[in-house]
């Protein structure tokens, strides 16, 4: 079975039509602080937090903790 990673979606700011850049943002989750990469517009500096994306990241964090 071939596993392809097609998660690399290009995000654009609705306002500026600029490609969003991933920026490390600190988030608080449960009892810890984590850094997650969130898409940010280089023009208007709006950070886009897609709920599904945020939840996905949280899941990654959880899984990462369980592994270690
Ligand atoms: Zn923008």
TrEMBL record:
Q: Which UniProt keywords apply?
A: DNA-binding
What are the protein's GO molecular function terms? DNA binding
Give residue ranges for domain DUF7479.
10-68
Is-annotated flag, keyword Cell division?
no
InterPro entries the record matches: DUF7479 (IPR055902), DVU_1557-like (IPR054656)
NCBIfam families in the cross-refs: DVU_1557_fam (NF045645)
Q: What is this protein called?
A: DNA-binding protein
- Which species? Acetobacterium wieringae
């Amino acid at each position: 079975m071939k596993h392809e990673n097609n998660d690399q979606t290009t995000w654009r700011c609705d306002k500026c039509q600029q490609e969003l850049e991933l920026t490390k943002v600190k988030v608080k989750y449960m009892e810890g602080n984590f850094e997650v990469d969130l898409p940010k517009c280089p023009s208007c500096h709006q950070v886009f937090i897609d709920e599904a994306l945020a939840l996905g990241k949280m899941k990654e964090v959880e899984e990462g903790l369980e592994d270690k």
